Amino acid sequence: MVAFTRSDRHRVAVLVRHGLLPMELGIVHQMFGQAKSAGGAPLYEVVTCALVRGEVRTNADFTINVAHGPEVLGEADTVIVPASAEDYGPQTSRLAAPLADAFARIRPGARIASICTGAFVLAAAGLLDGRRATTHWKSSGDFQELHPTVALEPDVLYTDEGDVLTSAGEASGIDLCLHMIRRDHGSTVANEVARSTVVPPHRDGGQAQFIQRPVPEPRLSSTGHARAWALQHLGRPLTLRELAARESMSVRTFTRRFREEVGISPLQWLTQQRVEHARQLLEETDLSVDRIAADAGFGTAASLRQHLQTALGVSPSAYRSTFRGPASPVRT
Question: Which of 77, 107, 173, 223 could form a disulfide with 115 if both were Cys (CB 3.0 to 4.6 A apart)?
Answer without folding.
Answer: 173
